[in-house]
């Protein structure tokens, strides 16, 4: 199971590392495999097909004078094979505990030819096509892993020269990439490279992150420096966001839909919190909600199944903040759901701490029993 | 009859009874005085003698009476026996006379019966002739009346050929009559009255009721439409409102209805009926209606159109819509229609001729024998037709009520008069009310008028308030940009208004706010409330009733609350609609930015005093309990403020709360926006400058713009009051030297982590609690510094770059401490955080020592 890449931050001068975190459900413990990486890593993204492959976006200091932003594909060479792989996390410095942890080697496979500005992230399309998001453009690459080559097949320039691309996400339902820059959101068709929709000045503040609802087409979520998370329906852009919520007290750096239950959404912020939101009313779960007979039937069945909860019939899930996780002590820049377990997620903060959490069981039961 | 004894007794006492007081036979005789006199004047022997005399007298009298009685009784007995004899004689002779006359009397009675029968027969036999005559003289009513009277007779004696012949003949004639009636009814110029009469007659002739009601409805509607058109034509020339008492000479000249057919006579009649219809109305209204023909549009419309319409509806209901009774109980028919007929005849306007005559109802059961289904069909159809007609009528009324943009320019009494007429109209049209709920419709219209009135009155205040706010903002912005250009410092414009809010040295923000609130209060006191008061205090009956008044007030209360909601929403909308300005345009955007600050302050102002004051004013004026004083005494301010009325208290509280809430929201919006704009400035600077290659700040030279704390906002404007505090602030940091602070990086990390663990969570974008300059500025600074700290994390620094950050942080400390008094530690920790981060992200960190930094800052100040 691979977690989405987490934003690593490293000491510029020190050697950087990639940590492979493996979560063993049976024993409920995390083990770490450390790979050293030559430069400070800004983003990491693992291949869906081959668990050993991942891209990193990093900055290389040249001659101590200037930095060069790069994106490269790496292959992990491990001492032994894991039975169950649970995550790839990026990590900075660890204390003196390295002797406990197995170490591995990274094999450089290929690099993307990045132009001016830094590369923000790399998105895997499939094993032969990746998309890189840079400051001023979004590029589509054909890569050949065996040959170690990458070919630029198309690029999209930022429509507004005043604003860099902040982030982008693939539409899981179509060949479309949705990017945020400045205060605007825009989508492009990947084959024609033509814009599909534009939400100009979507909010009065800058946008930092975007995610696409994996189960419901046309629904995207954005976060930015006004502490608010907004959810949009891109079919009707004039109507404004279909939902807005503000439970953070500083910038929202990351939003993530749950791949299985899109009524659950994670947000992370530089107020050191990770929030688990329920947006059931506009999710695919909504059609099941309050569906009188069915729901009550389900409720009864649930009550029958676990006898000790017989008198504790679950309410249907409602909109709102489910739980705020405040284990971090510094800004949380990345949060990601597990791609295998629907209730597991991990967050990474500036101080290098990665925290794995689960959806609270009450909410879990609410969702399960009301389906 | 006086006895001798009495006489002697009198004689005896005459000597001593000189006055009538002492005469025993006199009316004025008084026992006590007599006795007293006796005791005084007589000796004992004398008294004894008097006593003896009296006793002897009494005895004498007794004996006399007895003899008298005896002789009288004997007399009486003989008289009585004679009387009995006489009476007996009289009795015998009288019975003899009676028996002798008996036979003749019987004969006379028989003859009488025969005579009346003969008369009837005569009538029957003459009926065809009579009917013919009637046909010729066009007195169809008489014809139908006669026919109906004889009909049952003819039916009864059907078996006699004579009668059959007559019946046949009559029927033939009546068919002609019916045709004639039908013709008359269908004639184009037939009036409603004629049509109704004809229908009544036809109904009495047992025409098919279904076809009949359809035709009736059709014709009546046509006629009514004609009447309506005509009336509308007529009223064009009429004024909407004429003051009834004074306008009498004028009204005499007003054009009377053009049709000669219903000229003065008819109008007088209808006017009279208006009065009778509005029997419950005030006396003056009655007087007016009786004495004058309707002189204004609505009254005219009511008199000529609504009355007829109502008449039609009533008669239709009477004829067709009364539930049919079982044929066995004819009495029910009478009573069934009776209830309505009575109620109708009370209200009935144009007289009994509009309904089928009483004899028709009584004798022939004129009520159409419709089945239940037919009735319901008829009622739906007529309801539909009537509703259409009424809605047209209401539209007409509505068209009289115009709402000009300047709502205060309308004359309330005109509107009220129109509505008053409408109200009277509904009162006098009970049939319409019963059929299609005319009164409800009219009440709806009245309420609509009320809410329109209130809405517009409040809307005017709304507009005024908003335009005032906008205008003031523009003024302030001008002022600001002027001051900004004169000082030549762009960032100044941002700080200035905020400091002015507190101190108000140059341009009085406080004054502006005060002006606005005073204006708002005044506009309510002078315009809106008196205007509504005027509307309410007119002689309108629909407002006179308690429900009417309560409804009006309720209406107003709701609208007033909605008014506040709107204002607050509008402010928030305006505030959020302010486009975030790109940093380069900071000075131009200051207008819109500060406007939300002004509005926020306004909201707080509202919540503290204005709202409550307004509600108090309302309690004192519009909502005052009891009879309102028409003289408009609300203008007289009473000295003690009355409390807010209980029914308004809840509203008042919630409005105050809403004001406070939106004040906070606006303020937070202002802080967030300002903070964000400054943040972007900082972040832009960071991303444009390459900190990898930046030169170290020259220690001795003036510190230039590029790396300055761009949005620090402190500018140079405060240089006059430069704090001596500066050295302390630096010293407090330098408990160890600048260099050593960054030296032991690992240990520092640990320490800062521990610090973070135990320090409170810092919330950056939160509700501003201190509603003053310090609180607001600190909110902005928090946002700014956090943004700076965040943006530093994204960079990689060279030697010079890091040193620049060091200088920036110190610079910020010096300039920002005055605004960060709320939590100086937080400011320091954020700045420290930024420096630490920069140190860690620096390739070759060589921190400047504290003297270097100080000299740079000093050089800048110089």
Please provide a written account of the structure.
The complex is a heterodimer of chains A (371) and B (862). Chain A is mainly β and 371 residues long. Helix content of chain A is 6%, strand content 47%. Chain A has a domain at 1-157. In chain A, the strands form six sheets. A seven-stranded mixed beta sheet of chain A has the order 3-4-5-7-2-1-6, with no helix packed on it. In chain A, strands 8-9-10-11 form a four-stranded antiparallel beta sheet, with no helix packed on it. In chain A, strands 12-13-14-15 form a four-stranded antiparallel beta sheet, with no helix packed on it. In chain A, a hairpin with a 4-residue loop joins strand 8 and strand 9 (129-134). Chain B is mainly alpha-helical. Chain B is 73% helix and 0% strand. Chain B has 30 helices and no strands. The N and C termini of chain B lie far apart (154 Å). The chains are: A mainly beta (371), B mainly alpha (862). Chain A binds chain B through residues 9, 11-13, 40, 59, 61, 64-67, 162, 183, 201, 204-206, 225-227, 248-251, 270-272, 326, 329-331, 350-351, and chain B through 576, 579-580, 582, 672-673, 676, 679-680, 690, 692-693, 753, 756-757, 761-766, 786-787, 790, 793, 796, 798, 840-844.
Write a brief caption for the model.
The complex is a heterodimer of chains A (371) and B (862). With 371 residues, chain A is mainly beta.
What is the share of helical residues of chain B? over 70%
Name the shape of chain A in a single word.
Answer: globular
Strand content of chain A: over 45%
Strand content of chain B: under 5%
- Quaternary: heterodimer
Mean pLDDT of chain B: 68
Region (Disordered) (chain B): 245-288, 327-356, 702-730
Biased composition (Low complexity) (chain B): 269-280
Biased composition (Gly residues) (chain B): 703-718
Protein name (chain B): Vacuolar protein sorting-associated protein 51 homolog
